[in-house]
Amino acid sequence: MTSLPARAARRCHAVVNPLHSTVYFAPDIAREFERLGLPDRGADYFVSRAAAFGRVGAGTVTATFYNFKHDLVARHLPAAWEVISPEAALEARLRAADSVLRRLLGDDALSSKEMAEAAELALRATEACSRAARPLYAAHADLPVPEAPHLAYWHAATLLREHRGDGHLMTLVSAGLDPVEALASHTASGKGMSPKWILRTRGWSAEEWEAARERLRERGLLAADGELTQAGTDLRKAIEDETDRLDQAPYEHLGAAGVARLTELAGAFTKAAMEAGAFPADLIGKR
């Protein structure tokens, strides 16, 4: 029996995760990697996020990232490890996170008591995360916690993000949604990445995207006009509800008061980051 208000954990995650994600939409990582001899902008995301695994190949990344085309991943890995070591990539990502957060939030926010409190609360939540069947979380959980409060908070947000994400992939597989179908159904809900950004970053062709949408139509999940049917809406709701269930432990451990306070603090930081232009305006949407 949960002691939290309905969807409190989801609301908390929704405002904690974006501050972690800002680093993937900023030029800072590219600059850091270029200094280390990796000029390929397309490799940034794979190298920085997969570095916690060590020198893995494309197969591991395709499996654990789920919605990227294997051909795109294999274009960059494992070759990138010949240029930049996983250890150097992790250090570069942390430097990028520092510079991104300083630019978006300002030094005063980063050194504030609110940031220190948010870091303490988020790290406390991670104490109840589970490594079992959660490879991306488990790999990141082995990394040291940075000393600076804003980086400790970013690290904790990373752990909470990957913990929920690993559980979410379990629900997608259970629902019978392949990587492109998962993307297409999420986009159709109005809450997922726009087709423009998916085709730009995930490696799928326009033909593969349309084929996935057709498979969703054949299953009765997507209507002819591209909107989710009632069955599609119900399936996406069931996926998110099950993801919530699998991700409940960290927030139960934090407790209702702690979750409410972390949501308040994280919400303020994320709002400030978004107002400072942390994400592209056309990132989310059906078109």
Question: Can you give a write-up of this model?
Answer:
Helix content is 66%, strand content 0%. The chain is mostly helical. It has one domain (9-275). Helix 1 packs across helix 10 (149-174).
Counted beta strands: 0
Main pleated-sheet profile: none
Q: How much strand?
A: under 5%
The total of helices stands at 15
Average of the residue pLDDT scores = 96
Distance between the termini: 40 Å
Oligomeric state, counting identical vs distinct chains: single chain
Q: Globular, elongated, flat, extended or rod-shaped: what is the shape? A: globular
Counted up, domains total 1
Helix share bin: 55-70%
pLDDT under 50 segments (min length 5)? none
Could you say which structural class the secondary elements and strand pairing correspond to? mainly alpha
Order of helices and strands: HHHHHHHHHHHHHHH
- Cα gyration radius (Å): 19 Å
